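Q&A log
Question type: sequence-to-structure
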Amino acid sequence: MNKILVTGASGMVGEALIAALVSKGYTIHALTRKAKSNTSSVSYFTWDLEEGAIDKSCITDVEAIIHLAGAGIAKKPWSKNVRINILKSRTDSIQLIYQLLQSTPHRVKTVISASATGYYGNRGDELLTEERVPSDDFLGQTCLAWEQVVSQAASYGIRTVSLRSGIILSKEDGALPLMAKPVKLGLGAKLGNGRQYTPWIHLEDAVAMYIFALEHEGLRGVYNMVAPETITNKTLNRALAKTLKKPLWAPPVPAFLIRSIMGKMSDLLLHSTRVSAERISNAGFKFKYPTIREALTNIYIKPAEDEQKE
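Response status: OK
Response body:
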C-alpha cells in the first residue's frame, strides 16, 4: 500500500498527515480545489464539488483513501445554508469519489475517514463508547450521515474506518490557539459551569491514528479518536493556565451569554461529551500524549526548551 489519496489536504490535519506519510515512504495523491505544484512525493489533483467534477487520474494506482474534506464547523454561524454546506461538504465529497471508483478501474482497498465526537451530543458524565446512538441534533445527525455514506464502500469490498475526533490540539492552528489566547492575557475562565467534558487529542496522536488505521487491516467500522484522559472544561483551563504560567482568576463566562452570542454554535463549547478511547487502545494503538499535561507540555514548553538549546 504505497500510494494514498488524501482529501482535505490543505487543512491542519491534512498537511501534518501528508508530511508523516511521506516520511514513511508513501506517495501521495492530494485532492484540492485549486491547482498546486507537484513535489517528488506529492501529486496534486483538483475537484469541484459544486460542479461534481473530479480529475479521474487522482485514483491511478491508489490503494487507500484518507477522507478529511469538510467545511469548518466553527467559522460561520449555523444558518440553514451553512448547515447544509457543512453536511454536503462531507457527504457529497466522498460520494463523488465513490462514483469515480464505480465507473473507473481502480486498486482501492481501504477508505479511512474523519468523523467527530459531535456524534454523541450533550451526554453529561456518561462514558461514551462507539456503539452509543447518535444525538438527535445538527452535529449528531451530520456525523451519522457522514459515517453512513463512508460505510457504503464496504458493500463492494472496500474496508472502511471512521475516526470520531475530539478537539485536535496544535499550537499553530485549530481550537487551541483560540482557547489559549485569553489565558495568555490573564483572562482565562471556565465556560458555563466548567463541568462539561471536552474530548481532545494531540495532533501527533491524531496523525498517528490515521496511519495506524491505514496499516492495520483488522480495523473496521468506527473508533473514537480521543486521548485516554477525559477532562472537563475547568480542568482544561487550569492545565492551560499552569502550562503557560498564568493566573486563572476571571469569573466564569455564563452559559446564557455564550448562547446569546453564538446561538446553536455554542453547543461546541457547552455540550458535555465524555468519550472513551478504550476500543482503539484495545486494538493496539499507543498514545504518545495520553494526558493533557503531557500534550500541553509538548506543545508549549518543549519547543521553547529546544530553542534555548540551539
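Response note: The chain has ten helices and twelve strands.
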